[in-house]
Amino acid sequence: MTSTGTQKYAFFQGKIVPYELAKVGVLTHGLNYGTGVFEGIRGYWNPDKEDLFLLLAREHYVRFLKNTRMIFIDVPYTADELVEYTAELCRMHRFREDVYIRPLAYKSSESIGVSMQGIADDTAIVVTPFGNYVDMDRGLAVCVSSWKRSDDNAIPGRAKITGNYVNSALAKNEAILNGYDEAIVLNQLGYVSEASAANIFLVRDGVLVTPSVADGILEGYTRNAVMMLARDELGVRCVERSVGRSELYTADEIFLCGTGVQVAPITSVDRRRVGTGEVGPISSSLQSMYFDVARARNPKYSSWLTPVQMPSRVAEASAM
Ligand code: PMP
């Protein structure tokens, strides 16, 4: 994920400031010990409606607030307030393109020692223009990682703790170095958990199968969305259960889903073809439905979206 450097403002220490003022010192607890919690939210630009739509923004902030409790970080804002700060940041930038939003709450005191007692907290939000995180024009070639998912009793994956993303970084980097697009990470028991930053679904005999919430996964909102669309729009049943590694080699279809990857079909695992080796019908239907919903082209799911109410060019010009 690269920043394009076009962000001019950030929410930092309780207010929106110029981005260059949103800086921390090198002794910051969160930077040294990974004591932070973050989120990733997307905003999709709809040129017909001339507005930017935040996808499942409130849900992401509800998860964020729950997760900060896990590592004793106090965020003095409600989910609704955080959505509003985010929308305001988008409006201030006048972004007329897809964006990625990065909320971050972290232990902000500059001190030595891992205890979290008496350590101050801060919350920041940055918005940046963002396209696809993985290549969407073809199926992905993935591998099973040699790195295992961190255990729920070590660093809980569901908490989206910054320090835990060393696990994701090791897996993703190994995959790239070895010529793959992405890594599938097994949990400590050897069952499939998820990809480096995305959940995974398999299609087996017309049924969707995805690792259960006790398999070391982050309980993704895209995962929920996919399960709802599969059930309500395609009439496809979904089973949440532990998934064995060898099921990856025999599945009819496999795809990843998450805010970053969106819905991304996989066409090979460890150099073994998935199904026919082409993107399968359930994966491609779910992918196109997901994009329709995200881009505000399916009114049935408009409750998943927050319009930022971008000032129109006409309104801007007449205000000058
Ligand atoms: N798993 C991990 C490890 C992730 O980092 C993400 C991205 N947040 C996901 C799954 C997908 O979650 P979501 O659909 O809520 O973005």
Overview of the structural elements:
By secondary structure, this protein is an alpha+beta fold. It folds into two domains: about 120 residues, 2-Layer Sandwich (D-amino Acid Aminotransferase, Chain A, domain 1), CATH 3.30.470.10; about 160 residues, Alpha-Beta Barrel (D-amino Acid Aminotransferase, Chain A, domain 2). It has eight helices and 17 strands. Strands 8, 9, 10, 11, 12, 13, 14, 15 and 16 form a nine-stranded mixed β-sheet that branches. Strands 1, 2, 3, 4, 5, 6, 7 and 17 form an eight-stranded antiparallel β-sheet that branches. Strand 11 and strand 12 form a beta hairpin. The longest helix has 15 residues. The protein is globular and about 55 Å long. The model has no long low-confidence stretch (mean pLDDT about 95). 4'-deoxy-4'-aminopyridoxal-5'-phosphate binds next to helix 5.
User: Which fold name is given in CATH as the topology of the largest domain?
Assistant: D-amino Acid Aminotransferase, Chain A, domain 2
Specify the number of helices.
8
Report the average pLDDT across residues.
95
Strand content: 25-35%
Radius of gyration: 20 Å
Ligands in the structure? 4'-deoxy-4'-aminopyridoxal-5'-phosphate
Highest CATH level, the class of the largest domain: Alpha Beta
Uncertain segments are: none
Biggest sheet layout:
9 strands, mixed
CATH superfamily of the largest domain: D-amino Acid Aminotransferase, subunit A, domain 2
List keywords for this structure.
2 domains; nine-stranded mixed β-sheet; D-amino Acid Aminotransferase, Chain A, domain 1; eight-stranded antiparallel β-sheet; 320 residues; D-amino Acid Aminotransferase, Chain A, domain 2; binds 4'-deoxy-4'-aminopyridoxal-5'-phosphate; alpha+beta
